[in-house]
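Feature request, filed as a ticket because there's no other form

It would be nice if the structure record came with a short human-readable summary line next to the tokens. Right now we just get the raw output. Example of a typical job, pasted below so the devs can see what we mean:
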Amino acid sequence: MDKPCESVERETVALQIRGLGKWYGAFQVLRNIDLDIHQGERVVICGPSGSGKSSLIRCMNRLEEHQEGRIVVDGVELTGQLKRIDRVRSEVGMVFQHFNLFPHLTILENCTLAPRWVRKMPRRQAEELAMHYLERVRIPDKAHCYPSTLSGGQQQRVAIARALCMNPRVMLFDEPTSALDPEMIKEVLDTMVQLAEEGMTMVCVTHEMGFARKVADKVVFMDAGQIVEYGTPEQIFTRPSHERTQRFLGQLLH
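Raw output as currently delivered:
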């Protein structure tokens, strides 16, 4: 009787983590992490500096190597095998703190690079796709500019468009607004809210609690390399059960 339920669960889970452990030398940064992220779900990971948030999200596409446990993305387990890593990365978009755009390429060239080389997409088709996503993030007029001529908020929106050009099944955001001036944060968050409303599966490490409240289906609170608390935004923000969560939110929200 249980098998049909298990089958449905496997079909809907986009990313599964079991018993994840990671060390930097003798220091254990992640401890026994278990987490399921379902298709179409928006998950926000928050917590104090040094809690392991960025290490966790970077493990999700093998930018960081884990030493213990399993990570399965869309049915493919992430191991040291390059073919598996390439397959997962082709389906998982990543947006970083510091944009990571190629400074010697135009915005259009930044956005078409992966579709042309990874998806083997013809140049004309890749450029049409890139313009579509640049329009979605509201900066098509910057297509032939270089990154250095754009503001931080514009560069981050380009980074989002670049990731979307690969038509990813999951989008990962590693503190996407932390390097921005306050006035630029809203334009990036507005773009992310739009993606969320369109049903994109998203995992976001952020301190923007307003965004978490508005967009997240689930909130993960981490401390000392562990998941301390996990629940809906209402549960986490209005009635957190763990003292460490209460203290963190009390400092952040008041």
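Something like this underneath would help us a lot:
Strands lie at 13-24, 27-38, 42-46, 68-73, 76-77, 92-95, 170-174, 201-205, 218-223, 226-231.
Confidence is low (pLDDT under 50) at residues 1-10.
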